[in-house]
Write a structure and sequence with these properties.
The chain has eleven helices and 14 strands. The chain is α/β, with parallel strands linked by helices and 382 residues long.
């Protein structure tokens, strides 16, 4: 049986990892500045993470949500405390797309409306409603396009209000710092006005924190930079450090009923053990503080390099913008094959994305920029 050929794959096979590094079969070391799409939050193969999962699987790996699972409440308590979102309710699922799918469904249940507002260059997943509110027609099949969605330019508050005035919108879904789209963010004034309008027009505000959450930006959630209180918050990626887990944080004003949402694998014992381990390591090792400090250091160094035109993002969710003289896809390949450094791309082809584990050090940042300059010079000469 062949694998379904839907991925563009580098000729690179990591077989093990440790903290900021992955290794191939020959033992060659690669500095991981991408973390598999911002998934690796506390570093590869963290000993506490391994111990937590091993201990849990020796007891019980899985049972359905038809039984009591105290480990889910343990995860909810730890998450509420570290994120300062104690008042929210938690629904556990398996991925970011599933989190957004359930968030959109919740909003529709709560408001009894079906239309959604999303924003240009936003990315919310590849499942049915999640991809319908994603600004990329290439990955939308006709069945996805049956959903009622309006895509508006980020920051265009007048256009948002014009759409809300129709009275049909159940939710506005937004990444407060865009991930795949290219690290764009709007203004404090826009986000404040957006929250006010959602309340005014009985529309739920969904903060998609799948990539920007879990301390990646230096705050636990990106929306916390703006003093906003979303109705729904979606999470995944860094939540499990590689173990599949996602979640929906739901404002207490939104009431549940039996059967409203459901999942077979969501909130399983192993996923919860992984999620708890991540939060414990983040707290003990002060990784939010590290994300802030190293993120600021990255910006300082990058702003001193003439060929980097702009630095986008916050914390360890960074986009380095290059000019037209360089092809970023070729630069990434050069960094990977010649300098053994993993980096990421974006919808904007001029951006190199940096999404490392939150354990990164200044020494590793310095090493990256040293190699980046070498790779840039070589690519200019080709």
């Amino acid at each position: 049986m062949k694998l379904f050929d839907v991925y563009s794959i580098y000729d690179f096979t990591p077989i093990r990892g440790k903290d900021m590094y992955v290794y191939d079969a020959d033992g060659i070391e690669y500095l991981d500045l991408y973390g598999g799409h911002a998934v690796i939050s506390i570093g590869h193969s963290h000993p506490h993470y391994i111990n937590r999962i091993q201990s849990q699987v020796q007891q019980l790996g899985f049972y359905s949500n038809a039984v009591q699972k105290p480990i889910q409440q343990e995860l909810a308590n730890a998450l509420g405390t570290l994120s300062s979102c104690e008042d929210y309710q938690l629904f556990l699922c398996n991925s970011g797309a599933e989190a957004n799918e359930n968030a959109l469904k919740l909003a529709s249940f709560h408001t009894q409306k079906s239309h959604v507002i999303a924003f240009e260059n936003g990315f919310h997943g590849r499942t049915s409603a999640a991809v319908a509110v994603t600004d990329n027609l290439e990955i939308q099949a006709p069945i996805n396009q049956q959903h009622q969605c309006t895509i508006i330019a980020l920051g265009a508050i007048d256009e948002v209000e014009k759409e809300l005035q129709k009275g049909i919108t159940s939710a506005v879904i937004i990444e407060f710092i865009q991930g795949v789209g290219g690290l764009d963010e709007s203004t404090l004034e826009f986000y404040k006005a957006l929250a006010i309008l959602c309340k005014q027009y009985n529309t739920l505000l969904i903060a998609d924190e799948v990539q920007s959450g879990y301390g990646r930006t230096g705050e636990f959630f990106a929306f916390q930079y703006y003093g906003i209180i979303p109705d729904i918050i979606t999470i995944a990626k860094g939540m499990g450090n590689g173990f599949p887990i996602g979640g929906v944080l739901i404002h207490p004003d939104i009431k549940a009923f039996k059967g409203m949402l459901g999942t077979t694998f969501g909130g399983n014992h192993l996923a919860c053990a992984a999620g708890i381990a991540v939060l414990e390591v983040m707290k003990k090792e002060k990784l939010l503080l590290n994300a802030n400090e190293i993120g600021a250091y990255i910006k300082t160094v990058a702003n001193e390099i003439s060929f980097i035109k702009e630095v986008k993002g916050k914390g360890l969710m960074i986009g380095l913008v290059f000019g037209k003289e360089i092809k970023v896809s070729s630069l990434r390949a050069e960094l990977l094959y010649e300098h053994k450094i993993c980096t990421g791309n974006a919808k904007n082809p001029s951006i190199l994305r940096i999404l490392p584990p939150l354990t990164i050090t200044k020494k590793q940042v310095d090493y990256f920029f040293k190699k980046l300059e070498v790779a840039y010079v070589k690519q200019r000469e080709l």
